[in-house]
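re the bet — no i am not wrong, look at it urself. input seq straight from the record:
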Amino acid sequence: MSRADHTINMVIAALGGEGGGVLTNWLIAAAEQSGWWCQSTSLAGVAQRTGATIYYLEFMPREDDQRAPVMSLFPAQGDIDIAVASEIAEAGRMISRGFISPEKSALIASDHRVFGITEKSAAGDGSVDRDLILEMGRRYARTFIHFDMSEIVQRHGTVISAALLGAIAGTGALPFAPACFRDLISEGGAARANLDAFDESFQRALVGGEGEYVPAAQASFVLPAATTPVGERWLPRLAVLPRPLQEMAYHSVNRLIDYQDEAYAEQWLECLVSLIDRDEDRSDYSLSLEAGRHLALWMAYEDIPRVAQLKVRPDREDQIRSEVKADSDQPMTVAEFFHPRVEEVAALLPRRLGAALLRSETIRRLLGRLLGPRTLRTDRISMQLVFRGLSGLRRFRRSTLGYANEHQMIERWFEKVLTSSDQAKSRAVAELGGMVKGYGDTRYRTTSRLMTILDYLDTAPDADAGSIAALHAAAMAPDSSFESVDDILAAAPAA
């Protein structure tokens, strides 16, 4: 508050559904009750994780007979007294945009992560470096208060705006009494939860974010007791596996039974046994754990029946309502983007028919026009029936072109894991299974690159684990063209 007119400029970055507008209204009300002017503007983001909503507030003390001031509509670089971020990456964006200055800015942020669309869709690890942002905050802000506010509100059953308000009050960055803030959130159905989150966040901010919540140590995994016929058949078999593998095997078998059937899970378990026999690590079974995990995920590849199956789960509506904070009696619509590729439709067909479709340019063009991008109301009964029908097609999955193509790649990768010359090389090949991810174009790109690496290994049997790791890193690098294996290996740093 170094200006002659004693104004305070504040910017808030909050994701969709986190109550950024509510937080702004609370701050306006606190200012008015304390005898201050306050003006706010907002710029909405595109979606929950493609752009936060930015709220800009200016506070000015009232004077007797003073006319209402004219304030700015937009934040200015280097002119922010208080910056508030509901997630640590948004704090980093504020710093990169020049809002934060070491001379005047107090930066208040929840230091948890909510991954953005670009981070999730990256072939490799496209996540923002959280530790780098924390270092930037300490370097560029006059005061940097940060702690995990998400776990606070999760425990208290509210939204992060209440915790952010508590942190703002706890820093003393605004010259308003803490009781003023508490009075604002002490009414309404969520008052108790809001107050609890406010108080805990307030106390942590008072001591600079120290005294953070430390969750109880997680107990080691224990196989549950059998309560169904499926459990009675499978749990005794999982219990004889090496203990480091039991948790992974339990979740993998459940996934594969849900995805297809018990015979499919049996197929995976046989592969796991062959890995155990090959594994030289008899303490952690690292090769079996890594390869078994990636194998289960790959075998449960997402095709149209799987996507449909997930969309008609009985608990899906409850999950959506929980995410958007909608009550059970509130009307809710669910609209989803739908644009299947011709290849995905062909994958549903018997092998010969699907292959014939892909060879016909005429049919491909017609299907492309028919399938064009559209939005579907999946909350409607008619669409639920359509998706239930598509989900039921999984019983024919083993006879489809998609199954044949996927399992041809799976078998090739798994055979290379088992036949590699040493344990380190087998582990490096096993880790290549983590490349397979995504849906549509992303999946095609990742599997194609994996097959390119396996093609190279077929011609270079002396390639070591370091070379495989270099190819893996290059294949998953953002914006990598991955054109020449030889060029990638030549550019890789020496081990």
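see?? Strands lie at 8-14, 36-43, 53-61, 82-85, 106-110, 143-147, 335-338, 374-377. told u. also The radius of gyration is 28 Å. so pay up
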